[in-house]
Amino acid sequence: MQHNFTTALIHGGIDGDSRTGAVSVPIYQTSTYRQKGLGENSGYEYSRTGNPTRESLEKLIAELEGGTAGFAFGSGMAAITAVLSLFQSGDKVIISSNVYGGTFRVLDKVFKNFGLTYEIVDTSDLPLLESRISGNVKALMIESPANPLLTITDIAAASEIAHRHGLKVIVDNTFMTPYLQQPLKLGADIVVHSATKYLGGHSDLVAGLAVVKDKETAERLGFLQNATGGVLGPFDSWLLTRGIKTLSVRMDRHLENAAYLADFLRKHDGVTKVYYPGFENFPGYEIQKKQASGAGAMISFVLSDRYDIHQFFRSVKLIALAESLGGVESLVCHPASMTHASIPYEIRQKIGIVDNLVRLSVGIEDKNDLAADLAQAFDQSIVRA
Ligand SMILES: Cc1ncc(COP(=O)(O)O)c(C=O)c1O
After folding, report:
1. Catalytic annotation on 48?
2. Looking at residue 348, which CATH number applies to its domain?
3. Is 197 a catalytic residue?
4. CB of 76 closer than 6 A to ligand 1?
5. Into how many domains does the chain fold?
6. Predicted structure pTM score
7. pLDDT of residue 97
8. CA 252 to chain centre
9. Do 91 and 208 belong together in one domain?
10. Distance 100 CA to ligand 1 centre (A)
Protein backbone atom coordinates (compact mmCIF):
# COMPACT_ATOMS: atom_id res chain seq x y z
CA MET A 1 0.00 0.00 0.00
CA GLN A 2 1.30 3.48 -0.88
CA HIS A 3 1.42 5.84 2.08
CA ASN A 4 1.80 9.57 2.49
CA PHE A 5 5.44 10.51 2.95
CA THR A 6 5.54 10.93 6.73
CA THR A 7 3.74 7.62 7.19
CA ALA A 8 6.12 5.93 4.74
CA LEU A 9 9.05 7.12 6.90
CA ILE A 10 7.72 4.88 9.65
CA HIS A 11 5.93 2.09 7.78
CA GLY A 12 7.57 2.13 4.34
CA GLY A 13 9.76 -0.58 2.84
CA ILE A 14 9.56 -3.76 4.93
CA ASP A 15 7.43 -2.97 7.97
CA GLY A 16 8.29 -4.86 11.16
CA ASP A 17 8.95 -8.60 11.31
CA SER A 18 6.35 -10.94 9.82
CA ARG A 19 7.66 -13.99 11.74
CA THR A 20 7.34 -12.60 15.29
CA GLY A 21 5.27 -9.46 14.88
CA ALA A 22 8.12 -7.30 16.22
CA VAL A 23 7.36 -3.73 15.12
CA SER A 24 11.05 -3.06 14.58
CA VAL A 25 12.87 -5.01 11.87
CA PRO A 26 15.33 -7.30 13.71
CA ILE A 27 19.06 -6.85 13.41
CA TYR A 28 20.13 -9.93 11.45
CA GLN A 29 23.69 -9.89 12.70
CA THR A 30 24.86 -12.77 10.55
CA SER A 31 27.33 -13.23 7.73
CA THR A 32 25.78 -16.37 6.27
CA TYR A 33 22.59 -18.47 6.11
CA ARG A 34 22.06 -22.22 6.44
CA GLN A 35 20.97 -23.77 3.14
CA LYS A 36 18.59 -26.77 3.04
CA GLY A 37 20.36 -28.40 0.13
CA LEU A 38 22.38 -27.45 -2.90
CA GLY A 39 20.69 -24.53 -4.61
CA GLU A 40 17.96 -24.42 -1.92
CA ASN A 41 18.20 -21.27 0.16
CA SER A 42 15.92 -18.84 1.97
CA GLY A 43 16.63 -16.04 -0.49
CA TYR A 44 19.76 -15.10 1.43
CA GLU A 45 23.15 -16.74 0.95
CA TYR A 46 25.78 -14.34 2.23
CA SER A 47 25.40 -10.92 3.86
CA ARG A 48 27.52 -8.96 1.37
CA THR A 49 25.04 -10.06 -1.27
CA GLY A 50 21.92 -9.67 0.85
CA ASN A 51 20.92 -9.15 4.46
CA PRO A 52 17.31 -8.76 5.67
CA THR A 53 18.02 -5.71 7.88
CA ARG A 54 19.87 -3.96 5.07
CA GLU A 55 17.20 -4.99 2.61
CA SER A 56 14.46 -3.40 4.69
CA LEU A 57 16.42 -0.12 4.68
CA GLU A 58 17.04 -0.40 0.94
CA LYS A 59 13.33 -0.91 0.24
CA LEU A 60 12.51 2.02 2.51
CA ILE A 61 14.84 4.52 0.82
CA ALA A 62 13.69 3.34 -2.64
CA GLU A 63 10.10 4.08 -1.62
CA LEU A 64 10.98 7.46 -0.09
CA GLU A 65 12.89 8.62 -3.17
CA GLY A 66 10.36 7.09 -5.58
CA GLY A 67 12.86 4.75 -7.27
CA THR A 68 12.84 1.09 -8.31
CA ALA A 69 15.67 -0.02 -6.03
CA GLY A 70 17.79 1.25 -3.16
CA PHE A 71 21.30 0.24 -2.09
CA ALA A 72 22.95 0.78 1.27
CA PHE A 73 26.67 1.32 1.63
CA GLY A 74 29.22 1.73 4.39
CA SER A 75 29.52 5.48 3.70
CA GLY A 76 28.32 8.18 1.34
CA MET A 77 31.65 7.89 -0.45
CA ALA A 78 31.17 4.13 -0.90
CA ALA A 79 27.76 4.85 -2.47
CA ILE A 80 29.25 7.51 -4.76
CA THR A 81 32.15 5.19 -5.67
CA ALA A 82 29.76 2.39 -6.63
CA VAL A 83 27.63 4.78 -8.70
CA LEU A 84 30.69 6.19 -10.50
CA SER A 85 31.75 2.59 -11.22
CA LEU A 86 28.76 2.39 -13.59
CA PHE A 87 30.96 4.30 -16.05
CA GLN A 88 34.00 3.28 -18.02
CA SER A 89 37.45 4.32 -19.03
CA GLY A 90 37.14 7.06 -21.67
CA ASP A 91 33.90 8.42 -20.15
CA LYS A 92 33.70 11.85 -18.57
CA VAL A 93 31.52 13.13 -15.71
CA ILE A 94 30.46 16.75 -15.29
CA ILE A 95 30.25 17.75 -11.62
CA SER A 96 28.74 20.86 -10.00
CA SER A 97 31.29 23.50 -8.91
CA ASN A 98 30.74 23.08 -5.19
CA VAL A 99 30.38 19.31 -4.89
CA TYR A 100 31.52 17.75 -1.65
CA GLY A 101 35.33 17.67 -1.52
CA GLY A 102 35.37 13.87 -1.24
CA THR A 103 33.44 13.50 -4.50
CA PHE A 104 36.02 15.69 -6.21
CA ARG A 105 38.85 13.74 -4.55
CA VAL A 106 37.65 10.29 -5.59
CA LEU A 107 37.28 11.48 -9.19
CA ASP A 108 40.58 13.34 -9.22
CA LYS A 109 42.75 10.87 -7.31
CA VAL A 110 41.11 7.49 -7.99
CA PHE A 111 38.85 7.31 -11.04
CA LYS A 112 41.13 9.47 -13.18
CA ASN A 113 43.78 6.75 -12.82
CA PHE A 114 41.34 4.34 -14.46
CA GLY A 115 40.51 6.70 -17.33
CA LEU A 116 37.21 8.12 -16.03
CA THR A 117 37.70 11.87 -16.20
CA TYR A 118 35.69 14.81 -14.85
CA GLU A 119 35.07 18.46 -15.47
CA ILE A 120 33.88 21.00 -12.91
CA VAL A 121 31.07 23.14 -14.30
CA ASP A 122 28.79 25.69 -12.67
CA THR A 123 25.66 23.63 -13.26
CA SER A 124 23.44 26.52 -12.15
CA ASP A 125 24.41 28.12 -15.49
CA LEU A 126 22.36 26.00 -17.91
CA PRO A 127 23.73 27.38 -21.23
CA LEU A 128 27.27 26.86 -19.87
CA LEU A 129 26.35 23.32 -18.83
CA GLU A 130 25.02 22.48 -22.28
CA SER A 131 28.10 23.97 -23.96
CA ARG A 132 30.38 21.67 -21.91
CA ILE A 133 28.67 18.45 -22.98
CA SER A 134 30.69 16.62 -25.62
CA GLY A 135 30.71 13.09 -27.01
CA ASN A 136 32.48 11.38 -24.13
CA VAL A 137 30.48 13.05 -21.33
CA LYS A 138 28.27 10.29 -19.95
CA ALA A 139 27.06 11.66 -16.64
CA LEU A 140 26.10 14.82 -14.86
CA MET A 141 26.51 14.87 -11.10
CA ILE A 142 24.64 17.62 -9.30
CA GLU A 143 24.51 18.75 -5.72
CA SER A 144 21.69 21.20 -5.09
CA PRO A 145 22.00 23.08 -2.84
CA ALA A 146 25.73 22.51 -3.32
CA ASN A 147 28.25 22.29 -0.51
CA PRO A 148 29.14 24.78 1.06
CA LEU A 149 27.90 27.84 -0.89
CA LEU A 150 24.43 26.39 -1.38
CA THR A 151 24.37 27.10 -5.10
CA ILE A 152 21.06 26.01 -6.59
CA THR A 153 20.87 24.04 -9.82
CA ASP A 154 17.54 23.63 -11.60
CA ILE A 155 17.43 19.83 -11.46
CA ALA A 156 14.54 19.43 -13.91
CA ALA A 157 16.05 21.78 -16.51
CA ALA A 158 19.58 20.35 -16.12
CA SER A 159 18.20 16.79 -16.41
CA GLU A 160 16.33 17.74 -19.56
CA ILE A 161 19.54 19.08 -21.14
CA ALA A 162 21.55 16.07 -19.97
CA HIS A 163 19.02 13.57 -21.31
CA ARG A 164 18.95 15.28 -24.68
CA HIS A 165 22.64 14.35 -24.91
CA GLY A 166 22.18 10.82 -23.51
CA LEU A 167 23.76 11.51 -20.09
CA LYS A 168 22.77 9.87 -16.83
CA VAL A 169 21.87 12.38 -14.12
CA ILE A 170 23.07 11.75 -10.58
CA VAL A 171 21.91 13.99 -7.73
CA ASP A 172 23.53 14.08 -4.31
CA ASN A 173 20.45 14.74 -2.17
CA THR A 174 22.26 14.75 1.19
CA PHE A 175 21.44 18.37 2.09
CA MET A 176 17.74 18.10 1.27
CA THR A 177 16.67 14.50 1.98
CA PRO A 178 13.59 13.12 0.20
CA TYR A 179 11.43 14.97 2.73
CA LEU A 180 12.32 18.25 1.01
CA GLN A 181 13.38 17.24 -2.49
CA GLN A 182 12.84 14.17 -4.66
CA PRO A 183 15.30 14.35 -7.58
CA LEU A 184 14.01 11.25 -9.41
CA LYS A 185 10.63 12.95 -9.75
CA LEU A 186 12.41 16.02 -11.13
CA GLY A 187 14.05 13.92 -13.85
CA ALA A 188 17.26 12.55 -12.32
CA ASP A 189 18.24 8.90 -12.84
CA ILE A 190 20.18 8.20 -9.65
CA VAL A 191 20.10 9.73 -6.18
CA VAL A 192 22.94 9.37 -3.70
CA HIS A 193 23.09 10.26 -0.03
CA SER A 194 25.57 10.59 2.70
CA ALA A 195 23.05 9.04 5.11
CA THR A 196 25.56 9.93 7.82
CA LYS A 197 23.82 13.31 7.80
CA TYR A 198 20.07 14.09 8.07
CA LEU A 199 18.82 10.58 7.30
CA GLY A 200 20.73 9.06 10.22
CA GLY A 201 20.25 12.36 11.98
CA HIS A 202 22.05 11.71 15.27
CA SER A 203 25.76 11.84 14.35
CA ASP A 204 26.15 8.23 15.43
CA LEU A 205 26.78 6.38 12.19
CA VAL A 206 28.47 6.60 8.80
CA ALA A 207 26.38 5.33 5.88
CA GLY A 208 25.57 5.89 2.24
CA LEU A 209 22.51 5.23 0.11
CA ALA A 210 21.82 5.16 -3.60
CA VAL A 211 18.46 4.91 -5.35
CA VAL A 212 17.94 4.34 -9.05
CA LYS A 213 15.00 4.93 -11.32
CA ASP A 214 15.29 2.25 -14.00
CA LYS A 215 15.53 -1.52 -13.66
CA GLU A 216 18.59 -1.93 -15.88
CA THR A 217 20.70 0.49 -13.81
CA ALA A 218 19.32 -1.13 -10.65
CA GLU A 219 20.62 -4.51 -11.78
CA ARG A 220 24.01 -3.10 -12.67
CA LEU A 221 24.34 -1.18 -9.39
CA GLY A 222 23.25 -4.26 -7.43
CA PHE A 223 25.98 -6.19 -9.19
CA LEU A 224 28.53 -3.47 -8.37
CA GLN A 225 27.43 -3.30 -4.73
CA ASN A 226 28.09 -7.01 -4.36
CA ALA A 227 31.20 -7.06 -6.54
CA THR A 228 32.96 -4.12 -4.87
CA GLY A 229 31.52 -4.94 -1.44
CA GLY A 230 31.17 -1.59 0.34
CA VAL A 231 27.92 -2.64 2.03
CA LEU A 232 26.37 -1.27 5.21
CA GLY A 233 26.39 -3.68 8.16
CA PRO A 234 23.18 -4.94 9.81
CA PHE A 235 23.47 -2.86 12.99
CA ASP A 236 24.11 0.40 11.14
CA SER A 237 21.28 -0.46 8.71
CA TRP A 238 18.96 -0.78 11.69
CA LEU A 239 20.23 2.42 13.28
CA LEU A 240 19.73 4.30 10.03
CA THR A 241 16.19 2.95 9.62
CA ARG A 242 15.51 4.11 13.17
CA GLY A 243 16.84 7.59 12.35
CA ILE A 244 14.72 7.85 9.20
CA LYS A 245 11.52 7.29 11.19
CA THR A 246 11.80 10.76 12.77
CA LEU A 247 13.09 12.57 9.66
CA SER A 248 10.03 14.75 9.12
CA VAL A 249 9.78 16.03 12.69
CA ARG A 250 13.52 16.68 12.86
CA MET A 251 13.58 18.45 9.49
CA ASP A 252 10.70 20.73 10.45
CA ARG A 253 12.66 21.92 13.49
CA HIS A 254 15.91 22.17 11.49
CA LEU A 255 14.12 24.41 8.97
CA GLU A 256 12.59 26.66 11.63
CA ASN A 257 15.89 27.09 13.46
CA ALA A 258 17.83 27.73 10.26
CA ALA A 259 15.45 30.47 9.12
CA TYR A 260 15.83 32.14 12.52
CA LEU A 261 19.64 31.93 12.58
CA ALA A 262 20.03 33.01 8.96
CA ASP A 263 18.13 36.17 9.84
CA PHE A 264 20.22 36.63 12.99
CA LEU A 265 23.46 36.29 10.99
CA ARG A 266 22.27 38.61 8.24
CA LYS A 267 21.76 41.36 10.82
CA HIS A 268 25.02 40.75 12.69
CA ASP A 269 27.90 43.13 12.33
CA GLY A 270 30.49 40.37 12.24
CA VAL A 271 29.11 38.85 9.07
CA THR A 272 29.66 40.27 5.59
CA LYS A 273 27.73 37.69 3.60
CA VAL A 274 25.21 34.94 4.35
CA TYR A 275 24.51 32.05 2.00
CA TYR A 276 21.03 30.69 2.71
CA PRO A 277 18.58 29.54 0.01
CA GLY A 278 15.63 30.76 2.08
CA PHE A 279 16.46 34.43 1.45
CA GLU A 280 14.28 35.93 -1.28
CA ASN A 281 17.31 37.67 -2.81
CA PHE A 282 19.44 34.51 -2.82
CA PRO A 283 20.30 33.47 -6.39
CA GLY A 284 18.21 30.43 -7.23
CA TYR A 285 15.58 31.19 -4.55
CA GLU A 286 12.70 30.72 -7.02
CA ILE A 287 14.16 27.47 -8.35
CA GLN A 288 14.62 26.17 -4.82
CA LYS A 289 11.00 27.03 -4.04
CA LYS A 290 9.86 25.19 -7.14
CA GLN A 291 11.91 22.01 -6.71
CA ALA A 292 12.07 21.63 -2.93
CA SER A 293 9.67 22.17 -0.06
CA GLY A 294 12.16 24.01 2.16
CA ALA A 295 15.45 25.87 2.18
CA GLY A 296 17.30 23.27 4.26
CA ALA A 297 19.26 23.92 7.43
CA MET A 298 22.74 24.64 6.12
CA ILE A 299 23.97 28.21 6.28
CA SER A 300 27.37 29.48 5.23
CA PHE A 301 28.64 32.93 6.09
CA VAL A 302 31.71 35.06 5.62
CA LEU A 303 33.19 36.42 8.82
CA SER A 304 34.19 40.08 8.68
CA ASP A 305 37.95 40.65 8.63
CA ARG A 306 37.50 42.61 11.86
CA TYR A 307 37.05 39.24 13.55
CA ASP A 308 39.58 36.47 14.15
CA ILE A 309 38.34 33.25 12.59
CA HIS A 310 40.49 30.98 14.78
CA GLN A 311 39.16 32.72 17.88
CA PHE A 312 35.60 32.43 16.56
CA PHE A 313 35.92 28.66 16.17
CA ARG A 314 37.51 28.37 19.61
CA SER A 315 34.74 30.45 21.20
CA VAL A 316 31.61 28.56 20.17
CA LYS A 317 30.49 26.48 23.15
CA LEU A 318 27.14 24.85 22.50
CA ILE A 319 27.82 24.62 18.78
CA ALA A 320 30.67 22.18 18.13
CA LEU A 321 33.52 22.74 15.71
CA ALA A 322 33.36 19.45 13.82
CA GLU A 323 33.22 17.81 10.42
CA SER A 324 29.83 16.57 9.21
CA LEU A 325 26.32 18.03 9.30
CA GLY A 326 22.70 17.09 9.56
CA GLY A 327 22.66 15.83 13.14
CA VAL A 328 20.38 16.98 15.94
CA GLU A 329 23.27 19.00 17.35
CA SER A 330 24.50 22.18 15.66
CA LEU A 331 27.98 22.09 14.16
CA VAL A 332 30.27 24.64 12.57
CA CYS A 333 33.14 23.95 10.24
CA HIS A 334 35.78 25.72 8.20
CA PRO A 335 35.31 24.45 4.63
CA ALA A 336 38.70 25.72 3.39
CA SER A 337 40.67 23.56 5.83
CA MET A 338 38.13 20.82 6.56
CA THR A 339 35.45 19.55 4.15
CA HIS A 340 36.99 21.17 1.07
CA ALA A 341 40.70 20.93 1.93
CA SER A 342 41.17 18.35 -0.84
CA ILE A 343 40.29 21.04 -3.40
CA PRO A 344 43.40 23.05 -4.41
CA TYR A 345 43.63 26.63 -3.07
CA GLU A 346 43.29 28.28 -6.53
CA ILE A 347 40.11 26.33 -7.32
CA ARG A 348 38.72 27.14 -3.86
CA GLN A 349 39.28 30.88 -4.41
CA LYS A 350 37.73 30.68 -7.85
CA ILE A 351 34.57 29.00 -6.62
CA GLY A 352 34.18 31.19 -3.51
CA ILE A 353 35.36 28.91 -0.71
CA VAL A 354 37.35 31.71 0.87
CA ASP A 355 39.43 31.34 4.03
CA ASN A 356 36.98 33.22 6.29
CA LEU A 357 33.95 31.19 5.23
CA VAL A 358 32.11 29.42 8.05
CA ARG A 359 29.60 26.63 7.45
CA LEU A 360 26.89 26.11 10.02
CA SER A 361 24.77 22.98 10.25
CA VAL A 362 21.79 24.11 12.28
CA GLY A 363 20.59 21.49 14.74
CA ILE A 364 17.32 21.14 16.59
CA GLU A 365 18.27 22.73 19.91
CA ASP A 366 16.42 25.82 21.19
CA LYS A 367 17.04 28.49 18.55
CA ASN A 368 17.56 31.24 21.15
CA ASP A 369 20.36 29.24 22.78
CA LEU A 370 22.00 28.83 19.38
CA ALA A 371 21.77 32.56 18.61
CA ALA A 372 23.18 33.35 22.05
CA ASP A 373 26.12 31.01 21.47
CA LEU A 374 26.91 32.63 18.12
CA ALA A 375 26.57 36.11 19.67
CA GLN A 376 29.06 35.35 22.45
CA ALA A 377 31.48 33.74 19.96
CA PHE A 378 31.37 36.91 17.83
CA ASP A 379 31.98 39.02 20.96
CA GLN A 380 34.98 36.88 21.92
CA SER A 381 36.60 37.05 18.50
CA ILE A 382 36.41 40.74 17.59
CA VAL A 383 39.88 42.20 16.91
CA ARG A 384 39.00 45.63 15.48
CA ALA A 385 35.94 47.70 16.33
C1 LIG B 1 27.00 16.32 0.23
C2 LIG B 1 27.84 15.16 0.66
N3 LIG B 1 27.96 14.09 -0.13
C4 LIG B 1 28.72 13.03 0.23
C5 LIG B 1 29.42 13.01 1.41
C6 LIG B 1 30.26 11.81 1.77
O7 LIG B 1 29.57 11.01 2.68
P8 LIG B 1 30.29 10.13 3.83
O9 LIG B 1 31.05 11.06 4.71
O10 LIG B 1 29.12 9.48 4.51
O11 LIG B 1 31.17 9.16 3.14
C12 LIG B 1 29.31 14.10 2.27
C13 LIG B 1 30.05 14.09 3.54
O14 LIG B 1 30.23 15.10 4.20
C15 LIG B 1 28.51 15.20 1.89
O16 LIG B 1 28.39 16.29 2.68
Report:
1. yes
2. 3.90.1150.10
3. yes
4. yes
5. 2
6. 0.97
7. 87
8. 17
9. yes
10. 7
Mean pLDDT of the region 347-376: 94
Q: Is residue 172 annotated as part of the catalytic site, yes or no?
A: yes
- In CATH, what number is assigned to the domain containing residue 90? 3.40.640.10
User: Residue 22: pLDDT above 80?
Assistant: yes
- 139 forms beta bridges with 93, 168
Query: What confidence category does residue 91 fall into, taking pLDDT thresholds of 50, 70 and 90?
Result: very high
- Which entry of 44, 48, 204, 263 is annotated as an active-site residue? 48
CA distance 239 to 218: 24
- Do 53 and 64 share a structural domain? yes
Same domain for 290 and 218: no
CA distance 45 to 49: 7
From 28, 92, 100, 348, the catalytic residue: 100
Please indicate, yes or no, whether residues 84 and 162 belong to a single structural domain of this protein.
yes
Residue 199 and residue 89 share a domain? yes
In terms of residue numbers, what domain contains 295? Answer: 248-381
Beta carbon of 73 within 6 Å of any ligand 1 atom: no
What span, in angstroms and rounded, lies between the C-alpha atoms of 78 and 294? 28
Same domain, 256 and 194: no
| Domain final residue, candidates 200, 223, 245 | 245
Percent of the residues in the chain that have a pLDDT greater than 70, as a whole number: 99
pLDDT value, residue 1: 61
The model's pLDDT over 256-273, given as tens digits with 9 standing for 90+, comes to 999 999 999 999 999 999
pLDDT of residue 269: 93
Check whether residue 190 and residue 276 sit in a common domain.
no
Element (H, E) at 373: helix 367-381
Q: Per-residue pLDDT for 2 more than 80?
A: no
Both 116 and 256 in one domain: the answer is no
Are the CB atoms for 233 and 243 separated by under 8 Å? no
Q: What is the mean pLDDT of the chain?
A: 96
Active-site position among 118, 154, 172, 189: 172
E strands present in 32-98: 69-73, 92-96
CB 124 within 8 A of CB 153: yes
**341 confidence band (pLDDT: 50, 70, 90):** confident
pLDDT band at 339 (very low <50, low <70, confident <90, very high): confident
Phi, psi (rounded to 5 degrees) for 334: -110, 95
Q: Which residue among 196, 212, 245 closes a domain?
A: 245
